[in-house]
Amino acid sequence: MPPPDPDPALGRMQRKRLSRRSFLATASTGAAGAAIAGTAAAGTLADVPERLPGAPVGARSARSPHVDLGRIPEATPGRRNLAPEDAINSKTPLHKLVGVVTPSDLHYERSHSGVPDLDPAQHRLLVHGMTKKSLVFTMDELWAMPSVSRIAFLECSGNGWENWKAADETLTVQHTHGLISTHEWTGVPLSVLIDLVGKERGSTWMLAEGGDATGLARSIPLTDEIMNETIVAYAQNGEPLRPAHGYPVRLLIPGWEGNLSIKWLRRLKFGDAPFMTRWETARYTSLMANGKAKQFQLRQEINSVITAPSGMMEIRPGYNRITGLAWSGHGSIVRVEVSTDGGRTWADATLNRPVLPKAQARFHLDWRWDGKPTKIVSRSTDDKGHVQPDRKTVIGEMGTNALFHYNAQQTWSIDAAGRVRNVLS
Amino acid sequence: MPPPDPDPALGRMQRKRLSRRSFLATASTGAAGAAIAGTAAAGTLADVPERLPGAPVGARSARSPHVDLGRIPEATPGRRNLAPEDAINSKTPLHKLVGVVTPSDLHYERSHSGVPDLDPAQHRLLVHGMTKKSLVFTMDELWAMPSVSRIAFLECSGNGWENWKAADETLTVQHTHGLISTHEWTGVPLSVLIDLVGKERGSTWMLAEGGDATGLARSIPLTDEIMNETIVAYAQNGEPLRPAHGYPVRLLIPGWEGNLSIKWLRRLKFGDAPFMTRWETARYTSLMANGKAKQFQLRQEINSVITAPSGMMEIRPGYNRITGLAWSGHGSIVRVEVSTDGGRTWADATLNRPVLPKAQARFHLDWRWDGKPTKIVSRSTDDKGHVQPDRKTVIGEMGTNALFHYNAQQTWSIDAAGRVRNVLS
């Protein structure tokens, strides 16, 4: 046994400051096994600030005043300096977040008529249509029923729309890809409600309608996948939904476009055909290059983006860790490749394990930048064999007039000064 | 194709209110396949409140004013009505949360000298001792290094201490088990820092010291498991650590007692024996029934608790969903059994999938209460074969003078009026 550690008698310890120097080291990073370079200084305890007394523990843990985290409220693409009441969506700061779980207050928002403040004691969910019974559920009843929790991404079908036509080089990844977030969602499996009301066999579509003023309503095809995976959700990351995310109850359809996951859910109506609401005739269709429009393009396709280094960041030559997020509405990400030479060659990034189906996956690649201008880009592959397309492929099919489901590989250019900028490819 | 849905022309719809009635239905809940009973009323759209306009989207999503969530600041067991400055821990409201992820502001707190507000620009981490180099890392340097994210529980070794000697029947599960939370943690793998400083082969222990005034410091055995799994963490649930949880950097050792996961981490020192700080001589030892004390009892043992119905709740005869949390510092939960007759017979609860290693697991059991007084209790099993002990076994080994690592099965009694109360067994 050694003697007790000399601390806290700091005064007795050597305080000579060593001259700071940069160093270079090679380390095993486990799965990556790649070379790491860093800059850290040699030093002693004299180089570490003194310990500090603190504030009392409390009922909640606030953020540090040193941490600046916020979303960007936006109207249509390119209109970011707007009056608060004009904002229709608010984007998650992907460049400032790590891991895959999004803090509850920073989950992206997209609303068609603002955020209603619903009283859970008054709110009701009607389930009716092609069913044996028409039932009205209180929120207490939903909370008391069988439940399921699942970590899943939710993504606005408009995510990526900034880059359909042209690349604004002032955009960050928050602008280009901030309409996606990942949460643990909890609620009643849709299948339980279906059993309770006795859905008729012939019913193949379900209308979901929101309690916001617009009454956003969408027709949802009752495939086995949707019947098995859809959650009538009342909680996010362990706590009750926040008003912006549908309090007191919303639909959550993992892997499908966000606007199907109706917030402030007030009714589910079963039928034998799509209900053709204005949202699926006028709004959520995509004009293709051939002049026809895609309708009921409901699944979020495979996607990925490098979150660091990303738009408006600056890097230095030497070691740079490339990290980002990949996701697919089809299932689980199994591979992410990264190119650091504009798409000529590709290297496999390391995926943080476990990768959960229909959740974002975090990837990493150790990279040594030689200081020369280049472009970095990622592409993902899922367990159903889908590979994220390049921009040329997406535009070839869709043209540049569509607004939704842009999932092309995202390229960031890096100039000789290390400035990272949004480019089309 | 049917005609467009009549909504939003609500006025045209039938508004006759049907008399509310209770109903009983049997539904398949998938894995559980159990009978469910519920109460919901027959009704139409007239029974659902009108839709409401809303507030603008913003930079952050606040909680609903209808949601009341807070921790309970506490001093020693039984002292809950205290001045804020006397609180040393603050317990997570497990009875109000669902799923397994804990909201960042509600993760339990335990501090020995309050919550210091450290400036990340000034803070440093020294890594030294039996190493080839002594290095001082800035926070920017740590953020730029290879990283890993992991969903893991963190638990105070004092969790459960309320029930060592006697059962206060006014306690909720927040009181009895609120010193555990689960987050996604992100940071630098300890193994990367070890490679950078060149730890000597003979070093088998590591001292970790905090930057709070107390300078909480613990000796950590460098087993393969700890070397592989420990994270020098700077983020929780995607965002930078909050001050109460160690901002700007802390240790995170999945599965081991919380006080080893040193917050406000200022140095790691490598040695060839434990450093015998006062925390491991005077504080974190457990007096056993035989008069000897356990020292370096570091792993959090297998545990579980029913969170609903739980202490101070009231239930009604009929369908009641039993739900709770199970966890083990050894690995993954593979089974949770629930008894609704005070431990005479047991039924397998359903585990929410996937179950992650060293994270909390959520379990459910459908139950029909017949209205007679009874006791409910859970016991968990992990993938290493550990089974949560009953109270008699725990007390038989430890007596009633220990304070730490109480992991006995938690029993809740239910009287004829449906009142749920904390009892020893």
Automatic annotation (TrEMBL), chains A, B:
Provenance organism: Rhodoplanes serenus
Protein name: Sulfite dehydrogenase
Domain Oxidoreductase molybdopterin-binding: 112-279
Cofactor(s) annotated in UniProt: Mo-molybdopterin
GO biological process terms on file: sulfur compound metabolic process
PANTHER family referenced in this protein's UniProt entry, alphabetically: SULFITE OXIDASE, MITOCHONDRIAL, SULFITE REDUCTASE
Source superkingdom: Bacteria
Keyword check for Nucleus: no
